[in-house]
Design a protein that fits this description.
By secondary structure, the protein is α/β, with parallel strands linked by helices. The chain has three domains: 1-31, no CATH class; 74-190 and 330-390, Rossmann fold, CATH 3.40.50; 194-320, Response regulator (Rossmann fold). Helix content is 45%, strand content 19%. The strands form four sheets. Strands 9, 10, 11, 12, 13, 14, 17, 18 and 19 form a nine-stranded mixed sheet that branches. Strands 4-5-3-6-7-8 form a six-stranded mixed sheet. Helix 3 (127-139) runs parallel beside helix 4 and helix 6 packs across helix 7 (221-236). The protein starts with 11 loop residues before the first strand and ends with a helix.
Length: 464
């Protein structure tokens, strides 16, 4: 205890200053309490200064949060089993590539990042299956559809899509009826049979000048439709046409039909049908000794014919409702080859464009809602892998080209393009159409003798 004046003990009482205290407290203890109180206040102050810093990571975490994702389903329908599955898969690959590129571009719709998902279906080239898978896609709430490959499945499926208000674009169905039904949801990016049939028939009449032609079809909407157009055009050109012969889209034994035709000695035979039945017909025709020119529509205008018919495929003519794959955009061709390890077989450039058209219309409408982007699709003008694309009021592609090709050495070589009723040599078309120069076919091979002469020096150098 400290001492005050007069050596008396000094004490401080809080009795009258703080009712809780009723006894004297030494001054040393008071000083200690004050010091502790000051330290506590200082620590509290430091803690308050650190609070804003602790909140910063939370704010930063909110800013870094990924944008919401909008899943957009796009259906694709084609035969993925059966004799023409290779064409169906080729079509699917075109659509798949378009969606993968769109996802890589991180497209935004309605303020969200769109994730495009392909929903593939197999219609087996069967009209009944076609309607079943169409309803399946509607139930899956797809935003749009690419397909179907065949007219025979596209036509019965189209009312189902129309009723649901879902836009559908075919990259290969050519029967005129598809877009003549008046459905505002139906489009196609290839020409029609009433363009294709007259093109191949007129080319035959002008180049081969036949007097008698046999016409056969597979009784499908596509096969019968294009055969009708060919027959109509030939008759208008004063070419005699034999009574129609028929098979089915599953027929592979044509000997009875061909034996009958052989006796009539036609100068040309046109077949409306797909590769899986056209190949056997051509092979069996040659085996029976029929020397007529064989012609086909786009259903059999592809390289697989050389595998099915062998040497018999040499020299056949065919038409395609559009430009050939080799004339497609160079960037597309390179991307397709890199992705799938092969070149496009036939209509994959068109299904690629079809998928991109759906996506482009969605971008313009800033929505994947079919009701909102359908008007944009109807009035679209788009530069695709197959050229400039716009639709008429029926949903058909404006100014669609038709290509005529001949099979040589196991490969199809385009020889002419028919556009707006005018036939143009293929190399001239490539020069004047704005098609990518790199996509044009190689120059025609030089005569065999000249080629051999050029190879002789190389062979001699090799020997040395």
């Amino acid at each position: 205890m400290e001492k005050g004046p007069g050596n008396r003990p000094f004490s401080f009482s809080l009795e009258y200053h703080w009712p809780l205290f009723s006894r004297e407290i030494p001054m040393t203890n008071i000083r200690l309490a004050v010091a502790l109180l000051a330290t506590s206040l200082a620590l509290i102050g430091c803690g308050e200064d650190k609070k804003p810093e602790a909140k910063k990571p939370v704010a930063e975490e909110k800013k870094a949060a990924p944008p919401a994702v909008l899943e957009v389903k796009i259906g694709h329908v084609a035969p993925l089993t059966g004799g023409n599955a290779h064409l169906g898969k080729d079509n699917e690959n075109g659509a798949r590539l378009a969606l993968e590129e769109a996802n890589a571009a991180k497209i935004q719709l309605e303020g969200k990042q769109a994730n495009f998902v392909l929903v593939p279906e197999d219609d087996q080239e069967d009209p009944k299956v076609g309607t079943t898978v169409a309803q399946k896609l509607v139930d899956a709430k797809v935003a749009g559809v690419v397909g179907h490959l065949n007219s025979g499945t596209s036509i019965p499926a189209s009312p189902i899509y129309a009723q649901a208000g879902i836009p559908v674009i075919s990259g290969s169905a050519t029967n005129p009826k598809l877009t003549e039904q008046g459905f505002k949801t139906q489009f196609r990016v290839v020409g029609r049979d009433d363009q294709q049939g007259p093109a191949i028939a007129s080319y035959l009449a002008e180049q081969n000048k036949p007097k008698l032609v046999a016409v056969v079809d597979d009784a499908s909407a596509y096969g019968e439709g294009i055969a009708n157009e060919v027959e109509k055009t030939l008759k208008a050109a004063n070419v005699k046409v034999l009574p129609r012969e028929k098979g089915t889209n599953k027929t592979v034994d044509w000997k009875a039909v061909l034996t009958k035709l052989k006796g009539r000695k036609p100068d040309a035979v046109f077949y409306g049908g797909m590769t899986s039945t056209a190949g056997p017909l051509l092979k069996q025709g040659r085996e029976l000794g029929i020397k007529a020119v064989f012609l086909f529509g786009d259903g059999a205008c592809e390289g697989e014919m050389a595998k099915l018919a062998g040497d018999a495929a040499e020299g056949f003519l065919c038409s395609q409702a559009g430009i050939p794959p080799m004339a497609s955009d160079k960037k597309f061709l390179e991307s397709f080859k890199k992705k799938f390890g092969e070149d496009p077989k036939q209509y994959s450039p068109f299904t690629y464009d079809a998928a991109n058209l759906l996506i482009e219309a969605m971008k313009k409408a800033n929505s994947a809602d079919p009701a909102k982007y359908l008007p944009e699709l109807a009035k679209i003008s788009y530069k695709g892998a197959t050229g400039q694309i716009a639709f008429d009021d029926k949903g058909d592609r404006k100014d669609a080209e038709i290509t005529i090709s001949v099979m040589k050495g196991g490969k199809l070589e385009p020889v002419a393009v028919v556009k707006a009723g005018k036939t143009i040599a293929f190399d001239e078309f490539v020069k004047g159409s704005g098609a990518a120069p790199a996509a044009a076919p190689a120059p025609a091979a030089e005569p065999a003798k000249d080629a051999e002469k050029k190879e002789e020096p190389k062979k001699e150098e090799a020997k040395k």
